[in-house]
Amino acid sequence: MTEIEKTLDNKSVRPTAMRILIYKFMAGKQNAVALTDIENAFEKAERTTLYRTLKTFEEKGIVHQIDDGTNISKFALCEPGCNCEIDQDLHLHFHCSQCDKTVCLTEHKIPHINLPAGYIAEDANLVIKGICDSCSDH
Amino acid sequence: MTEIEKTLDNKSVRPTAMRILIYKFMAGKQNAVALTDIENAFEKAERTTLYRTLKTFEEKGIVHQIDDGTNISKFALCEPGCNCEIDQDLHLHFHCSQCDKTVCLTEHKIPHINLPAGYIAEDANLVIKGICDSCSDH
DNA sequence: AGAGATCGTGCAACAGAAGTGCATTTAATG
DNA sequence: CATTAAATGCACTTCTGTTGCACGATCTCT
Q1: CB-hemisphere CA count at 13 Å for B50?
Q2: Gap from B115 CA to D1 C1', in Å?
Protein backbone atom coordinates (compact mmCIF):
# COMPACT_ATOMS: atom_id res chain seq x y z
CA MET A 1 0.00 0.00 0.00
CA THR A 2 1.48 3.28 -1.08
CA GLU A 3 1.43 6.57 0.82
CA ILE A 4 -1.37 7.87 -1.35
CA GLU A 5 -3.48 4.77 -0.86
CA LYS A 6 -3.02 5.13 2.87
CA THR A 7 -4.04 8.77 2.75
CA LEU A 8 -7.21 8.01 0.84
CA ASP A 9 -7.99 5.09 3.07
CA ASN A 10 -7.59 7.22 6.18
CA LYS A 11 -10.23 9.53 4.80
CA SER A 12 -12.59 6.65 3.98
CA VAL A 13 -12.15 6.98 0.26
CA ARG A 14 -11.61 3.81 -1.70
CA PRO A 15 -8.27 4.12 -3.46
CA THR A 16 -9.21 3.31 -7.03
CA ALA A 17 -6.80 3.69 -9.93
CA MET A 18 -8.47 6.87 -11.13
CA ARG A 19 -8.48 8.47 -7.74
CA ILE A 20 -4.84 7.75 -7.17
CA LEU A 21 -3.99 9.28 -10.52
CA ILE A 22 -5.97 12.40 -9.74
CA TYR A 23 -4.38 12.68 -6.32
CA LYS A 24 -0.92 12.30 -7.81
CA PHE A 25 -1.67 14.91 -10.43
CA MET A 26 -2.79 17.42 -7.83
CA ALA A 27 0.11 16.64 -5.54
CA GLY A 28 2.49 17.41 -8.39
CA LYS A 29 1.04 20.84 -8.92
CA GLN A 30 1.90 23.88 -6.84
CA ASN A 31 -1.25 25.65 -7.93
CA ALA A 32 -4.93 24.91 -7.64
CA VAL A 33 -6.45 23.01 -10.55
CA ALA A 34 -9.74 23.25 -12.36
CA LEU A 35 -11.79 20.32 -13.55
CA THR A 36 -10.78 21.15 -17.10
CA ASP A 37 -7.10 21.08 -16.17
CA ILE A 38 -7.40 17.51 -15.01
CA GLU A 39 -9.53 16.62 -17.99
CA ASN A 40 -6.83 17.87 -20.33
CA ALA A 41 -4.11 16.08 -18.42
CA PHE A 42 -5.79 12.71 -18.81
CA GLU A 43 -7.15 12.47 -22.32
CA LYS A 44 -8.88 9.23 -21.50
CA ALA A 45 -10.82 10.40 -18.47
CA GLU A 46 -14.49 11.26 -18.35
CA ARG A 47 -15.39 14.66 -17.03
CA THR A 48 -18.14 13.18 -14.90
CA THR A 49 -15.75 10.85 -13.15
CA LEU A 50 -13.37 13.65 -12.40
CA TYR A 51 -16.22 15.84 -11.26
CA ARG A 52 -17.53 13.27 -8.83
CA THR A 53 -14.07 12.35 -7.67
CA LEU A 54 -13.41 15.96 -6.75
CA LYS A 55 -16.77 16.14 -4.98
CA THR A 56 -15.90 13.04 -3.00
CA PHE A 57 -12.45 14.36 -2.19
CA GLU A 58 -13.98 17.58 -1.01
CA GLU A 59 -16.56 15.91 1.21
CA LYS A 60 -13.90 13.78 2.81
CA GLY A 61 -11.56 16.69 3.43
CA ILE A 62 -8.91 15.65 0.94
CA VAL A 63 -9.17 18.75 -1.20
CA HIS A 64 -10.80 22.12 -0.74
CA GLN A 65 -12.63 24.06 -3.35
CA ILE A 66 -11.37 27.51 -4.21
CA ASP A 67 -13.30 30.33 -5.71
CA ASP A 68 -10.71 32.68 -7.13
CA GLY A 69 -13.06 35.05 -8.87
CA THR A 70 -12.64 33.57 -12.34
CA ASN A 71 -16.00 31.83 -12.07
CA ILE A 72 -14.19 28.54 -12.52
CA SER A 73 -13.99 26.33 -9.47
CA LYS A 74 -10.50 25.26 -8.58
CA PHE A 75 -9.32 22.62 -6.17
CA ALA A 76 -6.21 22.10 -4.11
CA LEU A 77 -5.07 19.33 -1.80
CA CYS A 78 -5.52 20.13 1.84
CA GLU A 79 -2.41 20.55 3.89
CA PRO A 80 -1.85 17.99 6.67
CA GLY A 81 -3.28 20.30 9.34
CA CYS A 82 -6.14 21.62 7.26
CA ASN A 83 -9.49 20.95 8.89
CA CYS A 84 -11.49 22.71 6.28
CA GLU A 85 -14.40 20.30 6.47
CA ILE A 86 -14.86 21.00 10.16
CA ASP A 87 -14.15 24.57 11.07
CA GLN A 88 -12.84 26.11 7.86
CA ASP A 89 -9.16 26.55 7.44
CA LEU A 90 -9.41 30.18 6.44
CA HIS A 91 -6.18 30.70 4.60
CA LEU A 92 -6.23 33.07 1.70
CA HIS A 93 -5.61 32.51 -1.98
CA PHE A 94 -3.69 34.38 -4.58
CA HIS A 95 -4.71 34.57 -8.21
CA CYS A 96 -2.15 35.70 -10.76
CA SER A 97 -3.70 37.75 -13.50
CA GLN A 98 -0.79 37.00 -15.77
CA CYS A 99 -0.40 33.22 -15.69
CA ASP A 100 -3.94 32.71 -14.42
CA LYS A 101 -2.75 30.35 -11.71
CA THR A 102 -4.19 30.27 -8.23
CA VAL A 103 -2.17 29.24 -5.21
CA CYS A 104 -2.91 28.67 -1.56
CA LEU A 105 -1.11 30.94 0.88
CA THR A 106 -1.64 28.55 3.74
CA GLU A 107 0.47 30.58 6.14
CA HIS A 108 -1.73 33.63 5.66
CA LYS A 109 -5.01 33.40 7.50
CA ILE A 110 -7.94 35.68 6.91
CA PRO A 111 -7.99 38.32 9.64
CA HIS A 112 -11.03 38.53 11.84
CA ILE A 113 -13.64 41.05 10.71
CA ASN A 114 -16.12 42.83 12.94
CA LEU A 115 -19.47 42.69 11.23
CA PRO A 116 -22.42 45.01 11.76
CA ALA A 117 -25.02 43.95 14.32
CA GLY A 118 -27.22 41.09 13.17
CA TYR A 119 -24.70 39.56 10.80
CA ILE A 120 -23.40 36.11 11.65
CA ALA A 121 -20.24 34.96 9.89
CA GLU A 122 -19.90 31.29 9.07
CA ASP A 123 -17.29 31.27 6.36
CA ALA A 124 -15.00 33.65 4.55
CA ASN A 125 -13.16 33.83 1.28
CA LEU A 126 -10.29 36.16 0.56
CA VAL A 127 -8.58 36.25 -2.80
CA ILE A 128 -5.73 38.60 -3.59
CA LYS A 129 -5.20 39.24 -7.28
CA GLY A 130 -2.02 40.46 -8.85
CA ILE A 131 1.28 39.11 -10.09
CA CYS A 132 2.70 35.96 -8.56
CA ASP A 133 6.35 35.42 -7.74
CA SER A 134 6.97 33.40 -10.88
CA CYS A 135 5.59 36.14 -13.10
CA SER A 136 7.19 39.13 -11.40
CA ASP A 137 10.86 39.15 -12.51
CA HIS A 138 11.97 37.73 -9.26
CA MET B 1 -32.96 66.24 -16.66
CA THR B 2 -33.42 63.99 -13.66
CA GLU B 3 -30.84 63.11 -11.05
CA ILE B 4 -30.21 59.76 -12.65
CA GLU B 5 -29.73 61.25 -16.07
CA LYS B 6 -27.21 63.66 -14.62
CA THR B 7 -25.39 60.83 -12.90
CA LEU B 8 -25.11 58.84 -16.10
CA ASP B 9 -24.11 61.88 -18.06
CA ASN B 10 -21.36 62.70 -15.58
CA LYS B 11 -19.91 59.29 -16.22
CA SER B 12 -20.13 59.70 -20.01
CA VAL B 13 -22.91 57.19 -20.38
CA ARG B 14 -25.78 58.16 -22.60
CA PRO B 15 -28.94 58.12 -20.51
CA THR B 16 -31.22 55.93 -22.58
CA ALA B 17 -34.57 54.71 -21.34
CA MET B 18 -33.30 51.21 -20.71
CA ARG B 19 -30.26 52.40 -18.81
CA ILE B 20 -32.32 54.65 -16.61
CA LEU B 21 -34.66 51.78 -15.81
CA ILE B 22 -31.77 49.52 -14.92
CA TYR B 23 -30.20 52.20 -12.78
CA LYS B 24 -33.47 52.81 -10.98
CA PHE B 25 -33.94 49.11 -10.40
CA MET B 26 -30.50 48.78 -8.86
CA ALA B 27 -30.89 51.91 -6.79
CA GLY B 28 -34.07 50.47 -5.30
CA LYS B 29 -32.32 47.33 -4.14
CA GLN B 30 -30.25 47.06 -1.00
CA ASN B 31 -28.51 43.97 -2.30
CA ALA B 32 -26.37 43.23 -5.30
CA VAL B 33 -28.22 41.95 -8.35
CA ALA B 34 -27.42 39.33 -10.95
CA LEU B 35 -28.10 39.65 -14.64
CA THR B 36 -30.94 37.18 -14.25
CA ASP B 37 -32.53 39.26 -11.51
CA ILE B 38 -32.82 42.22 -13.83
CA GLU B 39 -33.97 40.00 -16.64
CA ASN B 40 -36.82 38.70 -14.50
CA ALA B 41 -37.74 42.17 -13.33
CA PHE B 42 -38.22 43.44 -16.87
CA GLU B 43 -39.97 40.76 -18.85
CA LYS B 44 -39.53 42.73 -22.01
CA ALA B 45 -35.80 43.23 -21.85
CA GLU B 46 -33.20 41.35 -23.83
CA ARG B 47 -30.50 39.66 -21.85
CA THR B 48 -27.84 40.93 -24.24
CA THR B 49 -28.86 44.52 -23.68
CA LEU B 50 -28.75 44.08 -19.93
CA TYR B 51 -25.45 42.29 -20.20
CA ARG B 52 -23.86 45.04 -22.22
CA THR B 53 -25.43 47.76 -20.13
CA LEU B 54 -23.88 46.29 -17.02
CA LYS B 55 -20.52 46.02 -18.80
CA THR B 56 -20.78 49.68 -19.78
CA PHE B 57 -21.79 50.69 -16.28
CA GLU B 58 -18.86 48.79 -14.90
CA GLU B 59 -16.34 50.33 -17.28
CA LYS B 60 -17.57 53.79 -16.45
CA GLY B 61 -17.49 53.21 -12.72
CA ILE B 62 -21.23 53.31 -12.16
CA VAL B 63 -21.47 49.80 -10.80
CA HIS B 64 -18.94 47.30 -9.56
CA GLN B 65 -18.99 43.61 -10.20
CA ILE B 66 -19.12 41.32 -7.21
CA ASP B 67 -18.00 37.76 -7.05
CA ASP B 68 -19.72 36.29 -4.02
CA GLY B 69 -18.73 32.69 -4.52
CA THR B 70 -21.98 31.56 -6.07
CA ASN B 71 -20.41 31.59 -9.52
CA ILE B 72 -22.99 34.10 -10.56
CA SER B 73 -21.73 37.61 -11.17
CA LYS B 74 -23.57 40.23 -9.22
CA PHE B 75 -23.52 43.98 -9.57
CA ALA B 76 -24.10 46.87 -7.20
CA LEU B 77 -24.14 50.62 -7.68
CA CYS B 78 -21.01 52.32 -6.55
CA GLU B 79 -21.30 54.62 -3.59
CA PRO B 80 -20.63 58.32 -4.20
CA GLY B 81 -17.04 58.04 -3.00
CA CYS B 82 -16.30 54.71 -4.65
CA ASN B 83 -13.37 54.93 -7.02
CA CYS B 84 -13.35 51.30 -7.89
CA GLU B 85 -12.34 51.87 -11.49
CA ILE B 86 -9.22 53.70 -10.43
CA ASP B 87 -7.68 52.29 -7.30
CA GLN B 88 -10.19 49.70 -6.14
CA ASP B 89 -12.56 50.52 -3.38
CA LEU B 90 -11.78 47.44 -1.37
CA HIS B 91 -14.83 47.12 0.77
CA LEU B 92 -15.98 43.64 1.58
CA HIS B 93 -19.16 41.79 0.71
CA PHE B 94 -21.47 39.62 2.68
CA HIS B 95 -23.35 36.71 1.20
CA CYS B 96 -26.29 35.29 3.13
CA SER B 97 -26.56 31.56 2.74
CA GLN B 98 -30.21 31.69 3.72
CA CYS B 99 -31.78 34.34 1.49
CA ASP B 100 -28.93 34.13 -1.03
CA LYS B 101 -28.56 37.88 -1.12
CA THR B 102 -25.27 39.68 -1.34
CA VAL B 103 -24.72 43.11 0.15
CA CYS B 104 -21.88 45.60 0.16
CA LEU B 105 -20.43 46.44 3.53
CA THR B 106 -18.95 49.67 2.28
CA GLU B 107 -17.80 50.75 5.72
CA HIS B 108 -15.69 47.64 6.10
CA LYS B 109 -12.49 47.74 4.12
CA ILE B 110 -10.30 44.76 3.44
CA PRO B 111 -7.36 44.86 5.82
CA HIS B 112 -3.90 45.06 4.34
CA ILE B 113 -2.19 41.71 3.88
CA ASN B 114 1.54 41.12 3.85
CA LEU B 115 2.29 38.85 0.94
CA PRO B 116 5.34 36.62 0.51
CA ALA B 117 8.28 38.06 -1.42
CA GLY B 118 7.70 38.32 -5.14
CA TYR B 119 3.94 38.65 -4.94
CA ILE B 120 2.43 41.93 -6.09
CA ALA B 121 -1.14 42.66 -5.03
CA GLU B 122 -3.32 44.62 -7.40
CA ASP B 123 -6.78 43.78 -6.23
CA ALA B 124 -8.51 41.87 -3.49
CA ASN B 125 -11.86 40.27 -2.88
CA LEU B 126 -13.21 39.34 0.50
CA VAL B 127 -16.58 37.71 0.93
CA ILE B 128 -17.98 36.76 4.30
CA LYS B 129 -20.68 34.11 4.19
CA GLY B 130 -23.25 33.51 6.86
CA ILE B 131 -26.61 34.85 7.99
CA CYS B 132 -27.53 38.44 7.25
CA ASP B 133 -29.32 40.74 9.66
CA SER B 134 -32.68 40.22 7.97
CA CYS B 135 -32.43 36.46 8.29
CA SER B 136 -31.09 36.26 11.82
CA ASP B 137 -34.02 36.94 14.16
CA HIS B 138 -32.89 40.41 14.74
C1' DA C 1 -16.12 -19.33 -3.48
C1' DG C 2 -20.77 -17.52 -4.55
C1' DA C 3 -24.80 -14.29 -4.01
C1' DG C 4 -26.17 -9.92 -3.15
C1' DA C 5 -25.46 -5.24 -2.08
C1' DT C 6 -22.81 -1.24 -2.65
C1' DC C 7 -19.74 1.77 -4.94
C1' DG C 8 -17.26 3.64 -9.07
C1' DT C 9 -17.22 4.70 -13.85
C1' DG C 10 -18.79 5.85 -18.58
C1' DC C 11 -22.19 7.72 -21.65
C1' DA C 12 -25.72 10.87 -22.80
C1' DA C 13 -28.05 14.69 -22.05
C1' DC C 14 -29.48 19.10 -19.88
C1' DA C 15 -29.29 23.77 -17.46
C1' DG C 16 -27.56 28.11 -16.84
C1' DA C 17 -24.32 31.85 -17.47
C1' DA C 18 -21.29 34.15 -20.39
C1' DG C 19 -20.10 35.84 -24.61
C1' DT C 20 -20.07 37.03 -29.97
C1' DG C 21 -21.71 38.56 -34.65
C1' DC C 22 -24.78 40.86 -37.31
C1' DA C 23 -28.75 43.50 -38.62
C1' DT C 24 -31.75 47.13 -37.24
C1' DT C 25 -33.24 50.92 -34.76
C1' DT C 26 -32.30 55.11 -32.17
C1' DA C 27 -29.88 59.15 -31.12
C1' DA C 28 -26.12 62.87 -31.86
C1' DT C 29 -23.69 66.02 -34.98
C1' DG C 30 -22.52 68.83 -38.71
C1' DC D 1 -31.64 66.57 -43.74
C1' DA D 2 -27.70 63.42 -44.21
C1' DT D 3 -24.12 61.12 -42.11
C1' DT D 4 -22.12 58.81 -38.43
C1' DA D 5 -21.93 56.60 -34.19
C1' DA D 6 -24.10 54.34 -30.47
C1' DA D 7 -27.65 51.25 -28.52
C1' DT D 8 -30.64 47.45 -28.96
C1' DG D 9 -32.62 42.94 -30.42
C1' DC D 10 -32.13 38.29 -32.23
C1' DA D 11 -29.80 34.09 -33.02
C1' DC D 12 -26.38 31.28 -31.88
C1' DT D 13 -22.19 29.30 -29.61
C1' DT D 14 -19.25 27.91 -25.84
C1' DC D 15 -18.11 26.41 -21.37
C1' DT D 16 -18.91 24.85 -16.70
C1' DG D 17 -21.53 22.42 -13.80
C1' DT D 18 -24.85 18.84 -13.01
C1' DT D 19 -28.00 14.72 -13.13
C1' DG D 20 -29.93 10.07 -14.62
C1' DC D 21 -29.18 5.66 -16.01
C1' DA D 22 -26.75 1.49 -17.05
C1' DC D 23 -22.86 -1.34 -16.63
C1' DG D 24 -18.82 -3.08 -14.40
C1' DA D 25 -15.92 -3.52 -10.31
C1' DT D 26 -15.46 -4.27 -5.53
C1' DC D 27 -16.80 -5.40 -0.94
C1' DT D 28 -19.31 -8.31 2.54
C1' DC D 29 -21.24 -12.07 4.55
C1' DT D 30 -22.38 -16.72 4.86
Answers
A1: 22
A2: 63
